[in-house]
Write a structure and sequence with these properties.
Blueprint: H1 19-25, H2 28-37, H3 60-69, E1 74-83, H4 94-97, H5 110-115, H6 117-123, E2 127-136, E3 140-146, E4 151-157, E5 160-165, E6 170-175, H7 194-197, H8 201-209, E7 216-226, E8 229-238, E9 245-253, E10 259-266, E11 274-282, E12 300-303, H9 304-323, E13 341-343, E14 350-353, H10 367-379, E15 381-385, E16 388-394, E17 399-403, E18 408-411, H11 415-425
Parallel strand pairs: 6-12
Antiparallel strand pairs: 1-2, 1-11, 2-3, 3-4, 4-5, 5-6, 7-8, 8-9, 9-10, 10-11, 13-14, 14-18, 15-16, 16-17, 17-18
Length: 426
């Protein structure tokens, strides 16, 4: 059979989506990359398998359609996860360095924090991890993070969701949202971080393919063997030069259209920053026992629904107290959950949050503020423009500019794109 050669998607092809749909997702990839990169990434290239199988020729449009039509509901397998974003080492390390422990609406005790999905998400921000996954339709999923000394599992079965950390012997229980995330009656785990739900190549590939429009080149670039299965390789490249993304490669199962491997390589080169894939996969119905869970004897059980309700009441009280402030100096930029403003399009979209005017500590300040400023100077690069001055904090994929007045510009774009955005907003 003929070997598959690169074929490119015609500019403007959108897989049948309406202009309104294209507008809604035009910056999905950069935003999704930033969020997913902090949560689920990785697969060393070694297990991709040897050899390039001979498969019937297929166009990029046909391969994307094959992914879209794939309706595999049942599978089990192992996913290798590795993250190499080039994040700076922060004092305290781990989840705490990112505000992990006690952050969000989850349990706040030490044992509870170890079993909280919000904190497990932070552990996936660097290094290599192994996940075991199983799914049987929209109402039954299991994901286990396997460590050398312990195992962490999330089990979703109907309206029940359990998270269990064997290291602390702590289980967190919650009920599923009856309306589901998509409003179609699917039971989505309530309060489960999106990053942990997007733990497979399928989820990451769907986000990437949302950008198949005029800012993107999409081609079929040969074939591969992944987890013992024949696959086509879909190659996605930004056409916008300011993007820090070099390419995304998705290995797609030739038989059923399921993405088996997702690899994102930065424009700067080197190892993949985001690389997720199966080491083995089985599309048979998993055993019913895969989705059953009973807390082990002696385990500490936390009711996450009660904790969440308690946190909600405290949040309401805090907002009420905030409205009662007479002196609101320093709160001018607070907009009560309006969220960031997105400027630009496609791969060069930039999220911006207007500052309050207070800005960051300066290394010339005295005392603790000066120490904090000196540390920020050591991990950030000072920049200036017509907007004023600020610092750029960089990873291999996502860069952020924080101006001296506290305004933040962040995206999967290079430093100059952030400065240009700040200058234009002046």
């Amino acid at each position: 059979m003929p070997r598959n050669e690169p074929t490119e998607v015609t500019d403007g092809w959108d897989g049948g989506r309406s202009p309104r749909r294209r507008k809604a997702v035009r910056y999905a990839v950069p935003v999704a990359v930033a969020g997913v990169a902090a949560a689920t990434i990785g697969l060393v290239p070694a297990f991709a398998g040897s050899g390039s199988p001979d498969l019937p020729k297929i166009s990029a449009q046909e391969l994307i359609a094959k992914i879209a039509k794939s309706d595999v509901q049942q599978l089990s397998g192992t996913v290798r996860v590795t993250t190499d974003l080039g994040l700076p080492s922060l004092p305290g390390g781990g989840a705490a360095a990112f505000g992990g422990e006690g952050h969000g609406d989850g349990p706040k005790g030490a044992d509870e924090a170890s079993a909280s999905p919000q904190n497990k998400l932070m552990e996936l921000a660097s290094g290599t991890h192994t996940l075991r996954v199983a799914a049987d339709g929209p109402d039954k999923q299991r994901l286990s993070l396997v460590d050398k000394a312990a195992e962490y599992s999330i089990i979703h079965n109907g309206d029940q969701v359990w998270a269990y950390d064997s290291g602390s012997n702590t289980a967190v229980h919650s009920t599923a949202d009856a309306h589901g995330e998509d409003g179609r009656g699917h039971h989505g785990p309530k309060g489960l971080p999106k990053g942990l739900k997007n733990a497979t190549p399928q989820d990451l590939a769907k986000e990437a393919l949302k950008a198949a429009e005029d800012t993107t080149s999409v081609t079929v670039d040969g074939t591969a063997r992944v987890a013992g299965r024949d696959a086509y390789q879909l190659l996605i490249k930004p056409k916008q030069s300011a993007s820090t993304v070099g390419s995304i490669r998705v290995a797609v199962d030739a038989a059923n259209g399921v993405p088996l491997k997702f690899t994102l390589t930065p424009k700067s080169g080197g190892a993949a920053a985001i690389d997720v894939g199966y080491t083995n996969v089985d599309f048979a119905k998993p055993a019913a026992s895969s989705f059953s869970f009973t807390p082990p004897k002696g385990a500490k059980v936390v009711d996450a629904d009660k904790e969440r309700a308690k946190a909600g009441r405290q949040h309401s009280k805090d907002l009420k107290d905030l409205k009662g402030f007479k002196d609101r100096k320093g709160l001018e930029g607070f907009k009560g959950g309006d969220g960031p403003n997105i400027i630009g399009k496609g791969w060069t979209s930039i999220a911006t949050i207007k500052g309050s005017g207070s800005g960051l500590p300066n290394g010339k300040d005295k005392g603790a503020a000066g120490d904090a400023g000196a540390f920020l100077d050591s991990i950030g690069q000072k920049v200036s423009g017509s907007f004023g001055s600020g610092r750029v904090f960089s990873t291999r994929l996502v860069n952020a500019l924080i101006t001296d007045n506290g305004t933040v510009y962040v995206g999967a774009v290079d430093k100059q794109a952030l400065i240009d955005a700040a200058n234009a907003a002046k």
